[in-house]
Hints:
Elements: E1 3-8, H1 37-48, E2 52-57, H2 58-61, H3 65-75, E3 79-83, H4 89-103, E4 106-110, H5 119-122, E5 132-134, H6 142-151, E6 162-165, E7 171-173, E8 208-212, E9 214-215, H7 226-229, E10 235-236, H8 239-253, E11 257-261, H9 269-280, E12 289-294, H10 301-310, E13 312-320, H11 324-329, H12 336-349, E14 353-359, H13 366-379, E15 383-388, H14 396-403, H15 429-444, H16 447-456, H17 461-479
Parallel strand pairs: 1-2, 1-3, 3-4, 4-5, 8-11, 11-12, 12-13, 13-14, 14-15
Antiparallel strand pairs: 5-6, 6-7, 9-10
Helix pairs in contact: 8-9, 9-10, 10-12, 15-17
Amino acid sequence: MDKVLLFYPPGALFQRGEDRCQQNVDDGSAQAMRACNDLGYAAAILLKEGFEVKLRDYQTEGATMDDLTHDFEEFQPDLIMMSITNTTIFDDLKLINTLKDKYNPVVVLKGALFYAPEQAMLDLLDLSHVDYLIGGEVDFAIGQVAKFALRGEGKIEEVLSILYRDETGKLVPTAFHTWGENLDDQPFPARQLMNNALYKRPDTDEPMATIQTARGCPSNCVFCLTPEISGKRVRFRSPANVLAEMTECYEQHGIRNFFFKADTFTINEKWVREMCQLIIDSPLNGKIQFTANSRVRPLSKETLQLMKDAGCFLVAFGFESGSDEILSLIRKGTTVEENLQAAKWCHEIGLPFWGFFVIGFPWETKAHIMQTKKLIMKADPDFIEVTIALPFYGTPLYEVCKENDLLAESVLGSDFFHSSMKGTKYLTVDELMKLRRDILLSFYLRPKYILKKMGETVTHPGVFVNYAKYGIKLVVNLFK
């Protein structure tokens, strides 16, 4: 039987399964690792096709190169697939070159970097040891790639959103901007192969599964990869199919906490209401909890209340900026007033919420960023993250930065906390980092905030300890 190894490599923690942001978890303020669903989906597809599969998330396990080498020696995979990020791509390729030279497996790399890529960008990379690049949705590609590579079955040119080597050795793209349609037909991630205990709810340390409820986003945010790699039309799973996956997680794996992964969970109010009512009417009611991302438009207080009734313990908003001018320039499609309204609704119904903010857009002055700080203090989220704008290849933001000579170096190898930008038109990167530090410290070190969180956790000492750990991590990261 042909053997396939799916893995995240040893090293620093990155959200390698999150094509949209690929967050640097180690250097963030309060991020927790999410489950390796891209590997899980790939494993489920490959098992269905009769391959023997091994799945390892070496980075989250804290495993070493010796552990990876041991698995290669023992398992002897015929094909390997590794998820990469824009930040880690150079180190990832060094590792791949070593593994290819020593063991000679078929090599597949998966990552948003390879979605309809510019040849000029590919030329920056040593891809000589790579056989296939998956830039799109892995579950609609990996089975066909493996069958072609290992069994000679099928037509590789018909696989969606990949690059493959032709008979001359040149990397050739297939059809991009075409996506698989019926998400209910896809198998659930192979959680029997995943170490589910690694992926924890940040406050309680309980296992938390990631469940993809929809793919695609109709918004036009200039910094986001989603409309490019997942399409502007939202493809939903049926609420019944999502509930079936939750039930499997609960009954077979003992998981009762969930992150509903969608680029905007609340984009379709009718779908959200149906999903929440289905949970309330199911045997899982009162036994599970979930968190989800949301936009502040479209949104209603009634939807938030229903989400809370169904078990939502936290909602995350991409507020981005406290300046209407900047929100317009980044094409967010929202206003500061709507940001504050969403925050007000959450406070009124007692639903904790997370605020995500971005500073460093090309047009920003210090005054704009001070408006963002003002919004943060007025909205008073339970948690925040402030990142530096990152111009991913394939986004309008990248083109704006390139046109305005704001790129200090290649965007490859950079992340939200180690920017490739020179800064904005008015602020240097060092000034942006100092402003980020000021905002985070001003928010988290408020006596009012600290006393509030201590009061919330007085009967949950384990949660208090976790909050303290994240607080220490925040301060260390800001001053190192």
